[in-house]
Amino acid sequence: MTVAREAICRAQARQVHAIARLCKIRGHTRWVADEIALDLGVSRQAAAGLVDTAEALTTRLPQLLAAMDNGEIDLRTAGKVCDVTAALSDAQARQVDERIAGRLAGKDPEKVRRIARDAVCAIDPDGYAQRAKKRRKDRRVELIHGEEGMASLWVYLPAEIASAIYARVDGIARKLKTKDEDRTLDQLRCDVLADLALGKHEGLPGVLAQVYIHVPIDAALGITDTGCNLAGHGPIPGEIARQIMNDTNSVWRKVTCDPTSGAVLDVGRTRYRPPAALDEFVRVRDRECRAPGCRRPAQRSDVDHHRDYRRGKNGHTSKSNLTCLCRRHHQLKDVAGWVFRLDEATGELTVTTPTGRQHTARPEPILKPDVGKSDESTTDDHRDDTLEPPF
């Protein structure tokens, strides 16, 4: 299976090289996409996308293309990086390419997108903030009719608002999911959202959105504009983070962090009574399900005893023995043949599949520690591999 995937990656790399060569032979005319569409049996729009990707990989992201040549990255994953770097200049894109080189093998497309996005934020922080501010003006709602009497209601809006809406809808749906309720959680979320939008439902008492905004203390004070992070989404401009923090009616929870070490300094508690301190600490620390490749926010996951609580002393309830796992991975942990091993010293979680293959996820710090000018010669890749976990 994995050998076949490597062959697919290399074959897609050959196709990228061939498309780029054809574009050069045809003088980069706009008609080359029509020729590719006919030969590959795809729409012209899809062919134009392949042309754009091939041009970006061969001229702006050569290291990424080399990873495809080596069978490490497929075209879909490479396309994520192309999308994230599309707004950059050629020089900036090459800096991102160098910065992420060697860090993408074995990563899922969403993880690769996040790595590339973080590199873009580091290389072009001002441009990222300007683009984020401009994007907020593009918010809109679209109705897309489907088949068999169904339709999609698509909403494009700021990430912190979308996260808060989903958190509230999900919280109400879970409250309604009793043993007598035959609707699935997906169906309940859909029905709750529809009822809220139509004014048929006013919500449930005690069910509020809980979304964390991680803010370095210097960004909170307006000294810098970098390092702010929306849980489950990623970096947001400092200006937007401060607007959220200063809103007295905000449903978002502020997590103040030390800009030097990345450690959590304070969890805002002005909106409502928080859950048990330890439960909240673990959720803020982990941010997402700890299983490799899973992105489910910790606020919608289970806080799990890594070693069974029933084992007494070895299964103690402490931050070193608690991790956040989504319900599916929580259940998978107890399936025969699967092994979850947590290294309490480093925070690494290693999952062993029934075939014996191991996949490891290392906790990422909420903020990249500021190591100072004396360490400027150290590469970001090396620092990523030697950072202490965020707890």
Write a structural description.
There is one protein chain. With 391 residues, the protein is an alpha+beta fold. Helix content is 44%, strand content 13%. The chain has 15 helices and twelve strands. The protein has helices at residues 2-25, 32-40, 44-59, 62-69, 75-85, 90-100, 109-123, 125-135, 159-176, 185-197, 217-220, 238-246, 277-286, 327-332, 380-386, and strands at residues 140-145, 151-156, 211-216, 229-230, 234-235, 252-257, 264-267, 302-305, 322-325, 339-342, 349-352, 358-361. Strand 10 (339-342) and strand 11 form a beta hairpin. Helix 2 (32-40) packs across helix 3 (44-59), helix 7 (109-123) packs across helix 8 (125-135) and helix 9 (159-176) crosses helix 10. The chain is globular and about 65 Å long.
Strand-helix topology:
Elements: H1 2-25, H2 32-40, H3 44-59, H4 62-69, H5 75-85, H6 90-100, H7 109-123, H8 125-135, E1 140-145, E2 151-156, H9 159-176, H10 185-197, E3 211-216, H11 217-220, E4 229-230, E5 234-235, H12 238-246, E6 252-257, E7 264-267, H13 277-286, E8 302-305, E9 322-325, H14 327-332, E10 339-342, E11 349-352, E12 358-361, H15 380-386
Parallel strand pairs: 3-6
Antiparallel strand pairs: 1-2, 3-4, 4-5, 6-7, 8-9, 10-11, 11-12
Instruction: Calculate the terminal CA-CA distance, rounded to whole Å.
Output: 37 Å
Class by SSE composition: alpha+beta
Number of helix segments? 15
The tally of beta strands, per DSSP, is 12
Shape: globular
Q: In percent terms, what proportion of residues is strand? A: 5-15%
- How much helical structure, as a percent, in the residues? 40-55%
How confident is the prediction overall: mean pLDDT?
80
Widest sheet, order of strands = 5-4-3-6-7
- Give the low-pLDDT segments: 269-275, 371-391
What is the chain-wise order of helices and strands?
HHHHHHHHEEHHEHEEHEEHEEHEEEH
